[in-house]
């Protein structure tokens, strides 16, 4: 395997004759923006993997429990969402890739061979070793710090010199430097609070076309950094650990095989401007679907079932979790959550008609699983369902993807989906009389279709009339990010949200938006329509207002001061004239009155504004919270409008507000030095 050994130059001795084994670090392969890259596990995860890697059939939880690593198969799989398994490696040797500056790990077998040759070179103090491998690569070890790899197209001589001089050698590195290689410390297993995040329209969540999982990963990473910087004392005192954020998907349920809507939409889509029409079908149509009772029911079922499924799975994997739960929604996702939370029953979640995963109220009236399958002519699949321990209640909760995983063919899947849909409709038509606060649209209002049914709430929360399933927990807070709730309520005919209105099971509500977000709308003017109230300005995470905003305010105050000084000088001049012209007294009084109107109307203080009680939607506290725009964004509002709607996932200010409100319920506050 090796080439000729060349003794080291006696004039340049190396003091590296003491061999120390390399410290392995575990990596996983992941697709990032259409490229496959190797990323390091955190220090904590790598230590756990290293401690158990010799064991067979061992599964190790990593990434805060969101992924499992099958050590024997060297595979990393997602726990809470669908994701292709990715390769895992125990890494010791790396080379720098051609396309970027990232170091890429060699295979475990190749690394073992390199380590063995490195050990020989160290113990014998013989360097300038040329190692030729059957695959064509040539590694030259000049000294412990200078090791390079040559590609087959540029074979070096015994001194490592390439003959054609065209191909640059690759840099080879041994081991991992935790600081230089940006290896994260890792997440503690204890979770203080759980937040479910529901996405908006479309299958992607930002301008880089990333998935909801990736965007929530970013938000979680930002929150972890803020906990270290802003809640350091509480962390050092072991009072807090971390907040877990989990994504909730619903887009695939609407656009997959379950509805067939994509196939039908494609047939009627015009062939021109294909990319634009595809974008429209993937994104903007979601808004129209949500206003259709048929597809709104699909969306609402998916969101409620998925949240309850994730909650049950999280509790199963974290049996010692004693914290509370919040929900957050972006764009249309916030409207979905608002409608869902508006229709929750008060009291214990387990006391409602849809308990343990939201089974319909009269599941017992359906019969057992055997009779249901016999009725549908699907008795041959009874053993399949029994193997998965599925009864009638859990059958009605199964999604199309669940049935696919159990290898149920398309025809039976359609029958089961139709059966579940008919049951939902039956429950809807036989449900008890609605709450007195709910009534049909007032006389004089017309509906666009005889099939479209809307409820109109006198307290001001009208929405499409569908079945709303109970959540198995009562959320502490609801965070709406870039939310169109205000616009949708207004279009539905809601003129005012009564000050007494509060979400039945959720006491906290925060409407968070960027000032340039074209999709976001305020809610406080619907609660207090007669009061002009500025939204609460979210503090910068570094503890002050952005400089350009302070400058803008300073210029505004300067203008106000100049105006005040000018009017004072004018008033003094009129008083002087008045001494010589008594007859002008009445005219001067008129001018003084007008001047007083201008100078005696100072803007209310921000501290006073934040203390104003704005109904009970957020427990008497403020509802609208606005982010501070960046300096570059203030130059062109239209240019940054779309970006502003997608900025929340990487916004430190947004994440810090969520952390403050979450930990406030635990009587824990940020450090004063960075507050």
From TrEMBL:
Domain DDHD: 471-664
InterPro entries assigned to the protein according to its UniProt record, in alphabetical order: DDHD_dom, PA-PLA1, SAM, SAM/pointed_sf, WWE_dom, WWE_SEC23-DDH2
Pfam families membership: DDHD, SAM_1, WWE, WWE_3
Annotated GO CC locations: COPII-coated ER to Golgi transport vesicle
GO MF annotation, one: phospholipase activity
PANTHER family, per database record: PA-PL1 PHOSPHOLIPASE FAMILY, SEC23-INTERACTING PROTEIN
Family: Belongs to the PA-PLA1 family.
The protein's name: SEC23 interacting protein
Source organism (scientific name): Cyprinus carpio (Common carp)
The encoding gene: LOC109092134
